[in-house]
Design goal:
heterodimer, A: four-stranded antiparallel β-sheet, 13 strands, 39% helix, B: 348 residues, 6 helices
Chain lengths: 507, 348
């Protein structure tokens, strides 16, 4: 403990000069870059997932992930999408996810990547991407002096028009706190969260006008990408170790305002968007929450927290003298840790070369003995190993999350019975105890749809069972029929949509 | 603020380049070393802002094509992002020509890895010829790019979509979901037919229009000029509805179109339409109830007989569609915007 105390005293004595320097001496941050890493992860996850099959089979989009989906100009100006569209305009044209300015079109895959990217636009949304699986809390750093300086920098950056100085005075600017990532995903006021995804998916088949349905599908795909991006961020060590101060305000790179971390920049620079590795095996979890954290310890936040260090949660540097032993250094280093795992293992201190702590072939921590201390740190070798090993796993989790959100499928068929036509709907992929509401829509001349039937309660009681088929009369002249189901089962909220042409409609 | 460029100023030096440009280079075939003209070249500067948490803050994209010598030039960036933390973060060059692997200045395909041979000036883009064993789905995801790149590569969407379906399934959804076979307009008109119209030699991409979903009653074909405006595009829309519904659909189209001129020169009934930069012919074949519209930009169909000739060609090939008409068909399955010219962001 003497070392910790010594460092605290040292930190306190340097506190004010360090903060004063903060405006001119940038420090590191750690997160997946929205424009590159997040978009690439979303694309790899989408390709590995079932989204393509759902688009082809349920939504009758023959090109699936490559189907162009256009958002008409009138829909872009609608209240629900206007702000989102402004944020889409911030995206780069080089990466394929910026929709056409003229037609508002993007392939479905690009809408997903766009959602993953705009989840980080404006950048301060990232405050809600933290999640400590031990406490369940989000970012909760004590603002202190560093927080004050950070708020000042935000104010200077944004100007008074976006809350800046007034926000600084009232405390409404980013003060180094945020909602837990899981709560942010489930939040009603997150326009790219789960509740909006459920609504937009239903509207993609239920809205009266074709333009509205197209816009809703684009919105739903963006929500899918955004929810996946929040999950992906808990695959980044600083986000699950409550490490904003050191990781995001801690180091230096290209310029006085460039606060991106060495790790973030390393991953962005090494992989870009286009070079993100393919997803490893697609992860299956029992619920959306379990992708983040669960009793079995296999949530992504838990696995990330227990395997990797972040810049601000490293072991303290240990002062050494002639009597210090490697075991003593290790014990003292472990006592200084803020999180129980990963721990410092056996150390090689005979020489003054740089050494690494390696687990399963992945270098997770660098250390080096100097004349009078052992210094622990992260370097590019660690970044390279961590990103190479972990990005495919993160993409596998995100792919699994996409599958989970689209796990229930509605099967539609049209039958000729007794001179009339009936639509029969069967739901597949439901978990036990499923309940929900089913609505059926018919499309008439001009592409307009209206509700023609509903079932207030659907239910299944056994596992992996399909629902009892529900049958509805189909109005004469209906050229297409669509179904939207929203409900709840043991895995959480679900939505299922489907549509198909009917081959009906006498002149 | 401008970030440090991760590329050199020239191939023969380690001096860092200038992220702002200007840029120039040569696009060649990696095997033959010959210059590649009319390759699509898209240059994008990405802007960022943020303190601690960093996010996108706009961009500037410039599009050009290689000249007959395979050379391109990108002017220096003159528009900058606003805001104290705003910065020019990245410059990305994407080059695409059908038949080759897309070239990005930051990453490589099909073997992933960072690209290290990009330079600001005198850059050499060595395009690798496409191999059928490579994945179109992965290629499209790799490629990215803005509108011009997407348009040039639009033809790859269809093979990419097929790749991602489970084994045994096809793009009609067969094998994925039990359902009727979708109408297939492929073969009603070919790229050669379009090129023969006006001896058009520039690149054309072939795909489907994005207006309405393909179904067992409706399909489209779109020949999109990669190098020129939609004035050089040709598109057909086909409805196979059965005799009664087909006739009703034909009447509805005539009612919706601007000043149709009944001509009775193709099929059982036909009409010519001219609107803006587009000529069109709509015709009906009563048995088995097929309605076709052929739209053609004035750049291709310089005179009305051109579009009529195309329509007759399509009519002669209608037998290639499944001859079995549906038992019942929708009266108005899709209110397709026939009077609209093919859109730039079209195709699958």
């Amino acid at each position: 403990m003497k070392t910790v105390l010594k460092q605290n005293v040292r930190l306190r004595s340097l506190w004010w000069p360090a903060c004063a320097l903060a405006l001119a001496w940038p420090r590191v941050a750690t997160a997946w870059e929205p424009a590159t890493t997040q978009a690439g992860l979303a694309e790899k996850a989408a390709v590995a997932s079932n989204v393509h099959q759902v688009l082809v089979s349920s939504l009758q989009r023959p090109l699936g992930l490559f189907e162009p989906i256009a958002v008409a100009a009138s829909e872009r100006a609608a209240p629900g999408l206007k702000n989102l569209w402004l944020r889409l305009n911030a995206l780069s044209g080089a990466e394929g996810y910026r929709p056409s300015a003229a037609t508002g079109a993007n392939p479905a895959l690009s809408w997903i990547a766009a959602g993953a990217t705009v989840e980080g636009v404006p950048a301060e949304r990232g405050r809600h991407h933290f999640f400590d699986p031990i406490t369940g809390k989000g970012l909760h750093d004590d603002p202190g002096v560093t927080g004050g300086f950070h708020s000042l920098k935000l104010a200077l950056d944004q100007g008074s028009a976006s809350g800046g100085l007034r926000g600084l005075a009232t405390g409404s600017t980013f003060d180094l706190t945020g909602r837990p990532a899981l709560g942010w995903v489930l939040s009603d006021d997150n326009e790219l969260g789960l509740p909006q995804f459920l609504l937009a998916m239903q509207a993609s088949v239920a809205a009266e006008r074709l333009d509205a349905r197209q816009a809703a599908l684009a919105h739903a795909l963006m929500c899918l990408g955004a929810v996946g991006a929040v999950l992906a961020d808990v695959g980044e060590p600083a986000h699950v170790r409550n490490d904003f101060r050191a990781a995001f305000l801690g180091g230096g790179s290209a310029g006085s305002w460039d606060q991106a971390s060495d790790f973030e920049r390393f991953v962005g620079r090494t992989y870009g968007r286009a070079g993100i590795p393919d997803a490893s095996s697609v992860v299956t979890r029992p619920s959306l929450q379990a992708f983040f954290t669960a009793n079995d310890g296999q949530g992504l936040a838990q696995r990330t927290q227990s395997q990797f260090f972040s810049a601000g949660t490293l072991p303290q540097d240990i002062v050494t003298d002639a009597t210090t032993t490697p075991k003593g250094v290790r014990d003292e280093a472990n006592q200084s840790l803020l999180y129980p795992q990963p721990a410092v293992g056996r150390l090689q201190l005979r020489d003054t070369y740089r050494h690494y702590q390696t687990v399963n072939g992945v270098r997770q921590l660098a250390y080096q003995r100097t004349a009078n201390e052992v210094h622990f740190f992260l370097d590019e070798a660690v970044y390279a190993d961590v990103s190479q090993a972990w990005l495919p796993v993160v993409a596998g989790y995100v792919a699994g999350l996409y599958n989970n959100l689209l796990r229930v499928q509605a099967d539609l068929s049209v039958r000729n019975e007794g001179g009339g036509h009936k639509v029969v709907v069967t739901l597949k992929g439901l978990a036990p105890g499923a309940t929900g509401t089913l609505r059926l829509f018919a499309e008439e001349a001009g592409g307009k749809r209206h509700e023609v039937g509903s079932a207030l309660a659907i239910s299944v009681s056994s596992s992996d069972a399909a629902s009892t088929p529900l049958s509805f009369e189909l109005p004469a002249g209906a050229s297409r029929v669509a179904v939207a189901v929203q409900g709840q089962d043991a895995a959480g909220a679900f939505v299922a949509v489907a549509e198909r042409a009917t081959a009906l409609g006498a002149p | 603020m401008v970030m440090k460029a991760p590329f050199s100023s020239r191939p023969d030096t380690l001096d860092p380049g200038d992220l702002l440009g200007s840029f120039d280079g040569l696009v060649i075939d990696s095997e033959t070393e010959r210059p590649i003209p009319e390759a699509t070249v898209e240059a994008t500067w990405a802007f960022e802002r943020g303190v601690g948490l960093v996010g996108p803050a706009g961009e500037k994209t410039v599009y050009t094509q290689t000249n007959p010598d395979g050379r391109y030039e990108i002017p220096r960036l003159t528009e900058f992002p606003e805001g104290a933390s705003a910065r020019v973060a990245r410059f990305t060059l994407v080059v695409y020509r059908r038949g080759y692997v897309a070239w990005r200045s930051d990453q490589m395909f099909p073997v992933p890895g960072m690209r290290h041979d990009f330079s600001q000036r005198r850059n050499r883009v060595r395009l690798v010829q496409w191999k059928d064993s490579w994945s179109h789905a992965k290629h499209l995801a790799f490629m990215g790019g803005g509108e011009s790149i997407k348009r040039a590569a639009a033809w790859e969407r269809q093979p990419a979509a097929i790749e991602l379906l489970p084994a045994g399934a096809n793009q009609n959804g067969e094998g994925v979901v039990a359902g009727p076979a979708l109408l297939d307009a492929a073969g009603l008109l070919t790229e050669a037919d379009v090129r023969a119209l006006n001896r058009y030699t520039l690149p054309l991409s072939v795909g489907r229009l994005p207006d309405l979903p393909r179904s067992e009653f409706y399909d489209t074909l779109h020949f999109q000029s990669e190098a020129k405006s939609e004035r050089y595009d040709v598109a057909i829309r086909v409805w196979r509805l059965g005799d009664v519904a087909g006739e009703a659909q034909y009447k509805k189209l005539l009612a919706d179109l601007p000043e149709p001129e009944a001509t009775q020169e193709v099929g059982d009934a036909s009409a010519r339409v001219s609107a803006g930069e587009v000529r069109a012919v709509v015709f009906l074949v009563k048995e088995p109830g097929i309605v076709v519209s052929v739209t053609c930009g004035l750049g291709q169909c310089v005179s009305p007989p051109s579009v009529v000739g195309l329509s007759k060609l399509v009519q002669s090939r209608l037998g290639s569609l499944d001859k079995k008409p549906p038992m019942d068909a929708p009266l108005d399955p899709f209110a397709a915007p026939l009077n609209a010219a093919p859109t730039p962001e079209s195709q699958p």
